[in-house]
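Researcher: We're teaching a course module on how sequence relates to structure. For the next exercise, students receive a sequence and then see the predicted structure as tokens, so they can try to spot secondary structure elements on their own. Here is the exercise chain.
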Amino acid sequence: MSLSSTETDPALREEPSLGVRMGRMLLADKFALVAALFLVVMVILALAGPAWLGEEAVRQNLRGRNLAPFDWSRGWIWWMGADALGRPLFARIIVATQNTLMVAAGAVVLSAAIGTFLGLMAGFSSPRISQIIMRLADVIMSFPSLLIAVIVLYLLGSSIVNLMVVLSITRIPVYLRTTRAEVLEIRERMFVQAARVMGASSNRILFRHILPIVFPTLTTLATLDFAYVMLAESALSFLGIGIQPPDITWGLMISQGRQYLTNAWWLSFWPGLAIILTTLSLNLLSNWLRIALDPVQRWRLEMKGPANG
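Model: And here is the predicted structure for the students to work with:
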């Protein structure tokens, strides 16, 4: 009995799903895999951390002020040491993960949504509307981002919502300019002209035909921007105009520990290490995404995947 053509011809076999292909490409890049696993752990800690160690993070013990790390006699929660009020640093870092990631994620999502929408309009609308939108971006970019954040937070007060809004405003031009540049090139392609001839509306062309092509570039940009926003939030908290106690972030913990650097270096070291590892993981994952979402370069990962030995 002869085999069917789909069984004999590998080219006719069913293509694996997008999720399976992305998983194989992630397994092919060990650094990106470790980075992704680390970020998954951070997200889990951000969701479950306050309920798990919230009480321990605020419980003071003045007898354990500036307790040195790796003292296992007190229990596993003290392995990172304690701060100036005797609170375990491990618990505080876990609890601070939520605020740190929430501010960064909120700012990135908000800036990406607004910047992408304005970029689509600027790239596909009339030259007059495009010029108005681009001049708005130029006004925002003409001021240093941290200076805008300092002024606005000083006037409105420090809170998680205000911090997200301020950081998102400073990052809107990045997405706007990137999206506009992509749209200006894509709108001249034949499939867009064909959609126009067939009577497709501008909104349909933008959101059904152009946006899916721009989306991979924006995803890679957002991954990199997440690291930048997290560092900006840490800088503002370090300057004392970011998140204020009793709320905590990694940047605020570094600020609180700077006066003890000479005799209790671990107060700033552990939250600083958390920022470094998270930022490094985001950069590694962004580099992997740039290759995995690019049809011209993804073969490098596919050739190293498990299916190809």
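Model: If you want an answer key for the exercise: The longest helix spans residues 202-239. The chain has a mean pLDDT of 85.
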